[in-house]
């Protein structure tokens, strides 16, 4: 059995995430108790801000780290790790690339930078369903009115486009008849595109304050869909304004012999992407709460 941990990205967050793990596992409680503000955000969100980028990212990182650490404590360890966008930071933190405190500081700054980077209401994202990447890229190349790029290659038949309002509107019109549908996404800005170039420079200034170590696990990165030997800060600076090759990452992991995928964090989005991408038999497990955690232990121990 060869295991990959997949760490969920922004959008999967929900109030109460991690609470029953906290109540039942002392080591998880000890992790959350180090960060009282984030713990309150995850469990109660009294101010109603958990869906804002500046808050969601640190809440997701802490929750994913705590869940993965609980599995590790029981002897379930991955050979590979991968995350969707901010989930990549959770994977790196779990691999001891940074201390947890440093990872929280970095992701807090990343969330703030991304939230402040684009004027509210001027940019957007949309999911394109039922079209090949070549068809979408061809349509995007014809856009003249603004910025329209691919943000996420999620899985076959689901690709997310990103850009300013005019660019995405034109892209949607060009894609009419060439895909099943285009679904506007309720997001605060156009992530993973060239509009975040300046934000990437600000993020790099943050990243360079820290000295990352090599992860304890083999990382598969968003920017390429495979392993990288470049400096980590170069990769993460690029990631914020670059397409996320998640489908390619899953295909690479299968090519390396991974036969067990464990999604770490709320929801089952990444598990769904794996099911739509992989054609050979693999085990797919989601661990988002105490019940699914105990089920994972039953399946893998």
From TrEMBL:
The annotated active site, in chain numbering, is 85, 192
Residue ranges the record marks as coiled coil: none
EC main class here is transferase
Instruction: Domain (Malonyl-CoA:ACP transacylase (MAT)): give its ranges.
Output: 6-299
Listed GO biological process terms: fatty acid biosynthetic process
Reactions catalysed according to its record: holo-[ACP] + malonyl-CoA = malonyl-[ACP] + CoA
Q: Which Pfam families match?
A: Acyl_transf_1 (PF00698)
Q: Which GO terms describe its molecular function?
A: [acyl-carrier-protein] S-malonyltransferase activity
Q: Which UniProt keywords apply?
A: Acyltransferase, Transferase
Known EC number: 2.3.1.39
Please give an example of a GO cellular component term from this record: cytosol
Quote the InterPro entries the UniProt record gives.
Answer: Ac_transferase_dom_sf (IPR001227), Acyl_transferase_dom (IPR014043), Acyl_Trfase/lysoPLipase (IPR016035), Mal-CoA-ACP_Trans/PKS_FabD (IPR050858), Malonyl_CoA-ACP_transAc (IPR024925), Malonyl_transacylase_ACP-bd (IPR016036)
**Protein family according to the UniProt entry:** Belongs to the fabD family.
PANTHER family in the cross-refs = MALONYL-COA-ACYL CARRIER PROTEIN TRANSACYLASE, MITOCHONDRIAL
Output this protein's name: Malonyl CoA-acyl carrier protein transacylase
Question: What species is given as this protein's source?
Answer: Treponema rectale
Starting at the broadest rank, the lineage of the source organism is: Bacteria, Pseudomonadati, Spirochaetota, Spirochaetia, Spirochaetales
């Amino acid at each position: 059995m060869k295991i990959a941990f997949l760490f969920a990205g922004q959008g999967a967050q929900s109030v109460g995430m991690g609470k029953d793990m906290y109540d039942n596992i002392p080591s998880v409680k000890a992790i959350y108790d180090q960060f009282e503000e984030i713990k309150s955000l995850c469990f109660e969100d009294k101010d109603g801000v958990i869906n804002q980028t500046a808050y969601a990212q640190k809440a997701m990182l802490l929750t994913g780290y705590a869940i993965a650490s609980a599995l590790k404590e029981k002897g379930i360890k991955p050979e590979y790790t991968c995350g969707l966008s901010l989930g990549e930071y959770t994977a790196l933190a779990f691999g001891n690339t940074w201390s947890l405190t440093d990872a929280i500081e970095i992701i807090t700054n990343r969330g703030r930078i991304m939230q402040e980077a684009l004027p509210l209401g001027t940019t957007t994202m949309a999911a394109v369903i039922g079209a090949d990447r070549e068809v979408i890229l061809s349509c995007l190349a014809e856009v003249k009115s603004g910025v329209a790029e691919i943000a996420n290659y999620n899985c076959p038949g689901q690709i997310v486009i990103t850009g300013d309002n005019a660019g995405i509107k034109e892209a949607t019109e060009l894609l009419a008849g060439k895909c099943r549908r285009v679904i506007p996404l309720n997001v605060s800005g156009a992530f993973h595109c060239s509009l975040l170039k300046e934000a990437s420079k600000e993020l790099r200034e943050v990243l360079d304050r820290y000295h990352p170590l090599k992860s304890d696990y083999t990382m598969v990165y968003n920017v390429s869909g495979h392993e990288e030997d470049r400096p980590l800060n170069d990769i993460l600076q690029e990631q914020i304004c670059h397409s996320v090759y998640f489908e390619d990452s899953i295909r690479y992991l299968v090519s390396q012999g991974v036969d067990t995928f464990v999604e770490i964090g709320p929801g089952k989005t990444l598990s769904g992407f794996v099911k739509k991408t992989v054609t050979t038999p693999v085990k797919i497990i989601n661990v988002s709460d105490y019940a699914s955690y105990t089920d994972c232990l039953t399946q893998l121990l």
